[in-house]
Amino acid sequence: MSDSGSKGARGRLAQAQRIVVKFGTHVVTHHGREFALGRVFALVEAIAGLRRAGKDVLVISSGAVGLGRRALKLDGPLSLGLRQACAAAGQGRLISLYTQAFAQLDVEAAQVLLTQDDLADPDRALCLRTTLLRLLELGAVPILNENDSVSVREIVEQRGTERSTVFGDNDGLSARVAAAVDADLLLLLTDVDGLYTANPRSDPEARRIPTLDALDGEAFAQALAGASGTSGAGTGGMRSKLAAARIACEAGVDVLIVDGHAERLLERALAGEDIGTLMPSPERRNRRRRRIALARCEGALVVNEGAIRALSETKASLLPIGVIAVEGNFGVGGLVELRDPSGLAWGRGMVNYDSHACRKLAGHHSREIDRLLGWRGYDALVTRDNLILQDLPQEPDP
Ligand SMILES: Nc1ncnc2c1ncn2[C@@H]1O[C@H](COP(=O)(O)OP(=O)(O)O)[C@@H](O)[C@H]1O
Ligand SMILES: N[C@@H](CCC(=O)OP(=O)(O)O)C(=O)O
């Protein structure tokens, strides 16, 4: 990337409105076991400041295994089962520290534990997105971690054909969460000031790479060749951060890998200071809106005039009472066209109920959902965040 391009990309970090911050094990703990109280609490203060400034911040925090290991007094290498036991013992400690720290600053922390499978399943991914967006609207800071006790994944190491079972990958998780909530920026906080040409712990000649185009195949492959595994208690090392950065950049999220031990690093990063490695996303537009705008519709909801007015004039969601008829067959999270009674299409949205449930609910008040379905999900058939009106102006490029 050219200097001017890189400066422009650094400059726009200040405008990032929704930020996902991932704390690696070596940020949260000293030596992978003791909670790094001063460091984490300073970051909590900085995040509370960002919240007060009106930004949305989500935290993905590692550290459960380390805290659990200490609590259970386990030394040396751990089997998969023991790591999972440690995670179970440590997660409660971890979230209680965050909750208490944020509470001192009048900010609510909210724990969300999830697995990669949750993000791959459209129903669960939609629930996750809605939960996270509601928490942000309420002023809370979601604190996420992988639900380690129930998740194991197999990955193929890039440098060979050997399969190894890897447990937990908060880098990948944070990229997917950032994409799911349409974040502007993903900050990967680790124990080194960004990506180097080789592992700086073993190669004194290694130089920091200030900016990388993660979507340029050749540049990415070169960066990957110089990246290696973890420095100790972490999982995945720089390689998993690079893979995560690519996912995030493809989804329209800028990524900055930065040293979580550095002073005032959130303020400095957002001020555009030349720290860490920035991977700007050329796709930083609202990809979700575009996906809704471009993907194939599986059905349609015919809505009445009152609903059209409410949706056009206010930021309302589409409630069942505004729906006259349901066309086609679709599942939860399916894409539908919104039509007026004359057949004119004026919007699109992702539905919270499948076509069968939508037919039962059409024309009814939301308070009747329980009675009509025997269970209750969202009040709206299409939540406002998942709806676009055709004649709305496109959001300008940042
Ligand atoms: N090319 C590289 N540039 C920077 N760090 C690298 C590189 N290759 C390997 N690493 C290692 O990656 C480590 C960070 O990864 P990891 O230990 O998994 O961190 P975290 O716990 O924050 O996820 C660094 O401490 C460093 O030893
Ligand atoms: N979920 C695990 C961390 C897994 C992980 O990805 O660790 P890291 O590479 O240090 O971010 C934990 O809470 O300890």
TrEMBL record:
Keywords: Amino-acid biosynthesis, ATP-binding, Cytoplasm, Kinase, Nucleotide-binding, Proline biosynthesis, Transferase. Its EC number is 2.7.2.11. SMART domains: PUA. GO terms for molecular function: ATP binding; glutamate 5-kinase activity; RNA binding. Coiled coil: none annotated. Substrate binds at S62, D148, N170. Its main location: cytoplasm. It is found in: Cytoplasm. It catalyses: L-glutamate + ATP = L-glutamyl 5-phosphate + ADP. Pathway: Amino-acid biosynthesis; L-proline biosynthesis; L-glutamate 5-semialdehyde from L-glutamate: step 1/2. The keyword Nucleotide-binding applies. It comes from the Bacteria. Residues 299-382 form the PUA domain. GO terms for biological process: L-proline biosynthetic process. GO terms for cellular component: cytosol. Gene3D superfamilies: Acetylglutamate kinase-like (3.40.1160.10), PUA domain (2.30.130.10). The keyword Repressor does not apply. ATP binds at K22, T190, D191, T235, G236, G237, M238, R239, S240, K241. It is an enzyme of class 2 (transferase). Catalyzes the transfer of a phosphate group to glutamate to form L-glutamate 5-phosphate. Belongs to the glutamate 5-kinase family. This is Glutamate 5-kinase. The lineage of its organism: Bacteria, Pseudomonadati, Myxococcota, Polyangia, Nannocystales.
